[in-house]
Amino acid sequence: MRLLYTLLLLLYFQFGFGQEPTPILSNKAEISVLTCSPGNQLYSLFGHSAIRVTDPINKIDAVFNYGTFSFNEDFYFNFAMGRLNYKLSVSPMSGFMREYQYENRGVTEQRLDLDSAQKQDLLNFLDWNRQPENRIYLYDFFYNNCSSIIRDVLDTALTAEVSYEDLSYASSPSYRNMIDSYLIYHPWGDFGIDLGLGTPCDKIPNAQEYMFLPDELDRAFDHAQIEGRPIVKEKRTLLTTDGLTYTWSLTQPIPLFWTLFGIIAVLSAWGLRKGKRLVFLDVIIFLAYGAVGALLFFLWFITIHTATANNFNMLWAWPIHILAIPFLWIERIRKPYFMAYGIVLLLTLLSFPILPQMLHMAIIPIVLIGLVRSWVNWKL
C-alpha cells in the first residue's frame, strides 16, 4: 500500500509539473543539494544525491532525482550488458522524505548561494532535462551516476563556473578503496564487486572524480565557490539516522572459504594416503571455478561495462576448466594441465600484494583450494 501511494504521488507530480512553461521563480525560491545516507540494501549502500527546488510563492517543493530507472522486461539483460538507462524524475519533497524516513536513512540539505538568474537557469535546465525525450542517460557507476551528474548539471546550466578545492586524500585511495569503506556492511556484496571489477576500479580518481559518491559530492560542495563566494550558504540536517551496523558471521566470504579450504585440505590428505584422487571433488570445484571464469570473460569481452576489463581474477578462474572436466580421467592430459594451473596459482599467491588489481582477501583460500587439488592431480 505504501508503495502504491508513493507511485501515485510520483505520477501525479510528474504529470503536474512542467505541463505549463517553466515557472518563473520568485525571490523566495531556493535550490539545494540533498545528500542521503547509505541504506541496508546493496543498491542503496553508497547513499544518494538529488536536487531540491522550493518556491513558496509558486507552491513548488520538488526533488529532481537522477537515480530512477524503469524495471521492464529488458532490465536484467541491459544491466548485464552495461546498457542500463537511468532517468531524471521529479517527485514532491514530502514523498521523498517519507521514503527515507521509512528506511531510517539520514538526509542533509545544502542550500546553494545562487542569484535569481542562476536559479532560473538551473530550473530551466532541469525542466528541459526531465522531458521524456531528454531525461534518459546511460548509467555508469563511477563516471555517470546520480551524484556525479549533479556536478555536471551545475557546470552545464550555470554560466558562472563552480570552482572546487582539491580535496584529494593523502592516502590516494583508488575507486575500489573508496567503495570498500561502504561495503564492509555488505560482505558478500564486497566479494562480488571485487570479483567482477577489474583494474579500472583500481585507478586513483582525481578530486572531481571523487564526486561519484554522494558523501564526496557533499564534501566538495562544502568547500566549493562560485564567483568568489562559497556556493553553500546554509547546511542543515533534515533527517537523522543511527547509521549501519556490522555483524560478523561464519557465512561471510572470508571465514566461509577458509573453512572450505580446511575441509578440502583434510579430504585431499586422506585421498593421498588412500591413493584416491576424489574426482567428484575436482568436478565440483573446477566446474565452479570455470563458471566464474566464464562470467568474468563475458563481463570483460562481451559487455560494454567500463570497469570489468583486465580482471586478474581470471588467473585462478579459468573458463577452460569447464571444457577440461571430461579429460580429468586421461593422465597424459590431466597431469600437465594441472601442473600448469598449479604454477599459475602459486605465482598468483606470491605476487598477491603487488598485482595491479587488489584482489579480495577471500581469494587466498580459493586459490589455495585450487593449488591443493592441482597438486593432488599431478601427484597421483
Summarize this entry quickly.
With 380 residues, the protein is α+β, with helices and mostly antiparallel strands.
User: From the helix content, strand content and strand pairing, which structural class follows?
Assistant: alpha+beta
Compressed to H and E, one letter per element, the order equals HEEEHEHEHEHEHHHEEEHHHHH
Strand order across the largest sheet: 6-4-3-2-1-5-10
Question: How big a fraction of the residues is strand?
Answer: 5-15%
Task: Please summarize the sheet with the most strands.
Answer: 7 strands, antiparallel
CATH architect. name of the largest domain:
Alpha-Beta Complex
How much helical structure, as a percent, in the residues? 40-55%
Examine the coordinates and then state which fold CATH places here, giving the name of the CATH topology of the largest domain. Answer: endopeptidase fold (from Nostoc punctiforme)
